[in-house]
Structures are given as structure tokens and as C-alpha cells.
Description:
The chain is mainly β. It is built from 4 helices and 63 strands.
Amino acid sequence: MSFINRRISFTVVLIAAVMLAAFGQNARNSAQAAQAATGGRVRLVHAVPDAPAVDVTIDGTVAARALDYAAATRYLAIAAGDHTVAVAATGTTTSLYQGKVTITAGQALTVVVEGTATAVETGVFEDDLGPVAPGNTRVTAIDAIKDGPAIDILRGDGSPLIQGLKYGTPYGAFDIPATAVSVAVVPSGGAVSAALIKADNVPLIAGTHNTLVTLGTAGGAVKPSTLLLTAPVDADKPADSAFVRFAHAAAGIPAVDLYVGGKLFVPNLEFGAATPHLALDPKAGEVTARAAGSAADSAALLSVPDLGLAGGSAGTVAISSKDGKLIAGIFPDNISALDAKTARLKLISASGGNATLKVGDKSLTSSAKGTAAEMPAGIYDISATVDSPAIALTGKLPLSGGVLYDLIVAGDGTNNKFIIAATSLNEQISSAPAAVGAAVAQADTPVPAAAATQPAEAPTDVPPPPTVAAPPAATDVPQPTETLAAPAATDIPPTAAPPQPTVFEGVLGTVFNLNEGVNLKIREYPNLTSRALALIQKDAALVVIGVRGKAAPTGEPTSTPTKGPTPTVDTKDVTVDAIWLYVTWQAPDGGSVTGWVNNQYVSLTRNGKPLKDFADILTLKQIAENTPGEVSTGAVTPIASVIQTIGTVVVNDGTNLQMRRTPDIAAESIALIPANAQVIVLEKTEVKSKGGLVGEPDSTIWLWVRYQSDSGSVVGWVNQQYIKITHGGRKVEIADIPVAKTIQRGFTEGSVAPVQPPPAAGLIATVDKLNEGANLQLRRDPNTTAESLGLIPNGSQLEVLGRNGDGNWLKVTSDGKDGWISTQYVAVTKNGKVVKIADITNVTTEKDLAASITPGPSPTATALGSATAAAPVAVTPTLTATQ
């Protein structure tokens, strides 16, 4: 069974190689660089086993046409914001699914169309396309089998690679050296002998992000299968990197392993396969080919000392054979700017003979460097011939706009293949080829970035207080219904001189430097963990009273004038975020709020002139940092005046409330919200209790809420039992909250720092070394073969009861259960101070070795079979934070 997404038609093999990530940063492609700076990337996967081929539209534009089951698109460039995704069977207008996907600038998403034909749904998974170390590859997985059990993905020898993967649940990616791995997909806890799927020599190529998708049905007509999605990660230094594609075009030659500079980069490259363009250091060293699976010091079948590619350039290395020996041809690739509706084609003859290609009515002939042409996106009849050896190939070729296609003719006259390797240069959601029978050029009209759907406004069926006006341009509140009219012409006598603007006498601040849709918090005290008194929108005016000074002793005045820089801040090393301002804001309802804001979000003027120099700002009146902010008497609470409905987090002090990506205690945790924090309540949904789950809340109601910080906001689901809901200071019944029409997935806007819990008293293990989205196993005994008692997310704090003999396992208490966790993923403290593992009591009968060895992964401690991976497993309820 193959894990590579391949489609064979008329002896044509299509290798979908994605390069949007790397070339998006290449200065030579200005169009894509601009897109990457303001938008994101989205990839679409068809995983509905009983559905036909589908068309997927985004904001009314066909992004994928005739997408077959078990197939995927490349990454497509897309504007940041909310987008409407619709799915319909190809050739029909009946929608099988419609929903919303939100993407932020720089984000890469995989959207899996899954479920069943009668109940289509989507799973949205964020991909980490950041650079990896040379020779490494990044791995994750998605379970798209709707009715199947949780699964483990094991290596061929039975050791775990991925554990506890559940349907539709994100799984943290991890980096390992490039390798070809045999895998078995088994029900969670099962052995290789119980495998649902097996596959040998799955190639995990260096410099790529690999997502293993399991799909099909557990007991239905469509047997479980797998799809490996391979895409290049972003280059660490694009201008200094050469982007190289490798293609195996040597008929009759078995698979090879390719090494670069002595490191394995491409394992198990088979005849007819091609890699994406990989970012390589031009000075990394020679490229060698060895028999697949052979030792790194075995005899080389091919050696190329220098590819001859400079930084910022690209090329394809086509490996062919002559007289039974491997040879390599190096063909430059044109990666310059390309229109999103135009495809670029290059013909390469790897067989040694002269090749001719006809695409529609255009003909290309091969040369030593390959020949190129550009043509509109569309679906074309193609035919290729080679004079020696005699090769003839025909088929249909869909060409998307903004894509470079390397068309490689390979074979020996009897075993022939047409390798079509595609690299995205400027592929957008409007770049899909037209349907068969339609005009050759893509007929869809792209939606301009400025026209992308904006984030949804707050619910309108809970009326706002009658005296409260909504602020302009805030994305989480309705837009104002009234505007100030311009003065009539008769208001100013014709002979009067134009009025001069009034200059504010004193220091005035204007809120700026906020991400779109984000409000600034006025805080009770000058620190980011202090209670928020109000949310104020961009461009709001603030009267600046003073700057933070030393705390005043009890009973003494809290403000004193100064003639020089604030003594508590050294002006030589001061940064804008170190300065806090004490300000007053006039609320729309006529009340006012006085409190603290951070200087980095406020532009200052004094008597109408800019106030930018730190030394000048610090000459303002000092306000003692223990001076509290306050809301004016009789005013509606300002935080309620700029939103419709608010919720206050009601949990024990020192405990955080989990915000989850979907309304499920097993869903990914995307934020921790501290006690007494306030959130914007948008919608609700009711989820049937699963019964008996560890940490399951009493309430079945989940709230869709927005939690805002000074630099961004996070939107997701929280359980209703931990939220006190009010509107304008008055209690709101849960029945009055609008019911969500669709279940959206949580997301982040701007940059939101995770909430860190305060140091806990006693002997505590803090889980702090997991990959994002990963959890840690709680085991019955100190080894990875022991029964799992639960899964613990990053950031959890656990009471430590003792350790085992070698110090590689800690006995802890988690949600009332005693169990064992691996020490390699935690930091241990006692009353906030770091503790050595050897100083913890050995509570086992094992020989005490902790003082004589350095604790690390014991033979059974590595959950992923790799000391470099951080045991990512499916997200489940936290055991230290309230659900």
C-alpha cells in the first residue's frame, strides 16, 4: 500500500509537490512574498469515503475542482480572515456542506472534508511549516475515520510512533531525522498483529512536513487506508538556499536513498517519484545515491560533487541510467514571479533521447537544460514522444495557475513514465483549472483580499443597554447605527475665518498599534495580569495623568511631580513596553474610567506636539504603581459598554479555566483563562454528556467566547458552569444566550501570550517540555508499557509523591489519581524553587541510582520511540485546570 498521493491515468503519474512555503519568502517572487506577508495558506483533503469527487469553493470561488476521495490539493494562498467553505458533488449545485474557516496571517491550515456523504463535516488542523534542522523531517497525523476507535501508529517493530489519536482531534507535530519507516495503524493499545493498515518503507523526506491521514470506515464497505501529505517547510535562510527537486527517472533501477553532505535527505526514492523542492545549503557537500535501506557507509551508486546552484536559485536533479549505471542531469527551474491564472511548464527528457511534448495546441521540445513555456490554467490533452528509446505517452493534464510543472519523460522503451512534479509559486484559491468542456482559462473570479468575509459580529438578539453606544470598527460588536452629521453651510458665516482646531493643553494619548478587531484593556494596576476595567477601541482618546512610579507607603500620597526620569526605570535601557501610563477615558455613556495602559499601544502628544522620547515621557508626574484604577460612580461598567454580553470566570484562585477549540473536554486546549477574568459571550451549544469521563464538567452547555489581551484575542469554547454571565451589570440567564447555528473551531487573532499559573506551593512537577498540542501519559507503573490512567496537557502542575530508582519517573497525583510520569518532560520545584531529581525520595523498591546518573529517557520512557520527540498524543481533559 502506498502512502504517497498518486493518481494514474493513461500512464501519467502526477506527483503533487508543494513549494509555496519556501518560495513565498523568495525575494525574486514579489507577488507571492506580498501574499505571504498578509495572508495564509490552506490545503484541502477529501476524506468522505462514500462521497463522489467534489468541488470545494471558498467565498464562492472554486478552490478545488473534481477532488477525488483520498486526494488533496497543494497549499493555496488565501487572505487572512473568515472564509465561507462549501462542498458539493462535482457537476452538481447541491451543497453537501457549508461552514466557516478562519485563518490568520502566516498561518497554514489543512481542511479535511470528512464524515459521511449524508453528514459531511470538516476538520481544521494547523500545520507548523517553520524550518527544521538540516537532515530532519516533521511528522504528525490526522484520524479521519468517523466511526473508528482511537488509534496508535506503530513502527514495524511494534514501538510507538503516535499514540491515542482520535477522530478530528489535532495532534502535535514532532521532528525526527529523515527516514523510511514501516508502520502499522492499530486500535489504541493494540499490537502490530491487530493492524487495521500496514505499510512498508514510508519515505519521510528531510526538510518536509508530513501528515499521515487515516481514512475510510472501520466496519463499512470502504476499507481503512492512508494518505501521506508531504510539503516542504519554510527555508531558514531563503536567499542563501538552493531549492532542489530530486526525481528518480532510471527505469529498471530499484529505489535509492539520497544523501547530502553525508546526511540522509531522501529515503526510499522509487522510480517515477519526485520530491518537492528542498531548501539546501549550496555548500552542504556532495550528493550521493545508495541502494535504499543500505548503510550510510555502503558503496555509492552515484556521486555528484557540486549541483552548481547558487543561493536563491532552483533546479531539478533527474537521476537516470546509462549502461546500467546511474547518472544525474541538473536542470535549472524558473521560480520568478508567475500570474495566479498562468501555469509554467518545463520539459525534461531523462531518457537521453530527444523529446517532444504537445499540450493543447502548444509544442515543447527538450534541450540540455529543459525547455519552458507558459499557458493559461486549464485541463489539456497531452502527448509526449521520445526518439530513442522509443517512448509514446498520452493523457489529460490539469494545470493550475501560479504553478511550475516539471514534465519529466523517463523510461527505457518498455517501462516508461511521465513524471509531473508541481511546485506552487503563486497558487491561490482562484487558480484551479476550469471544468472539462469549459474555457481553457480559469473562469472563476478571485475574491480580492479586501473583500474577504470579516469576523462575525456579536449576537444581536440580546439587546444592548439603551444608553450604551457601540464603538466604531470593533469586529466583535455591531457597528454604530448613527453618525455625526457635518455642520450645515449656514453654521459658519461666509465672512468668518475658518475655525482653528483646539489644541489639548496637557498630555493626550491615542490608542493605536492594535491588531484588527482587538481592543485595549485599561487595567486596575500596571501589569498584564491585573484585572481589566474597560475595553477601548483603536483611535480612542485618553487623558494622561502620569507615569508609573515607585509604590507609595500606606497612608502617603500616590502621585508626586518629577523633574527628571522616573528613578525606577533606567532611561538608557528602557523599552516602550516597560512604561505604564495612568490615564482617564471618557466612556460613550458619559461615565469615565481611570486606570493603567501600556505605552506601546498609545501615541502621545503634549500641548499638540508629539511626545516620543522616553526621557521626556518619564518626566511626567509619577503615579505610585499601587494606585488602583477605578470606574466613575454611576457609570455603566465600561467593559460592558463596548460589548453586549460578558462572562466572568468563576474558579478557585490559582486555577485556570480551559478554553477549547471545540465544545468537548477531549478537544485541544488553546488558552488558559485565570480566575475573575472577563470574556465576551457570543453563542452557546449543548453537548450530550459522554458519562464517566475524567474531569467531565457537570454542565452540558458550552459557550463560544472571545478572550482579549492587549496584543490579541483568542476565540473558543468554555464550559458554562464556570462562567457568570452579565449584561450591563445585570445577570443574564443562559436561556437568553443565542444558540450557535454552526459549531465553529477556536482560533487566535494577533499575538496572545499563554496565561501562566502562579508558582504552586509544595513539591510540584510542571509539565513544560511537550510539543504544542501534545499531552503526557499518566501511567499506573513507571514504564511506557503500563496502563495509561489519563493524559496531561502542557502547563499542568502536579503534586509529586516521589520517584523511582533511576530518577526517570515521578509518582504524582493527578485529579485524585496516583500514577507515574516521565521526568524528561517536566520541571520540578518546591515552593517555587528548582529541586534536583536526586533529592526526591525514592518510593520504589528499585536500587537508588539517581544520585550517580543523569536522569534521562529510560529504555521504556520514550513515548514516541525518539529521544528528540516530546510524546504528542491526543488532547484530553486537563487534570490540573478546570474544564
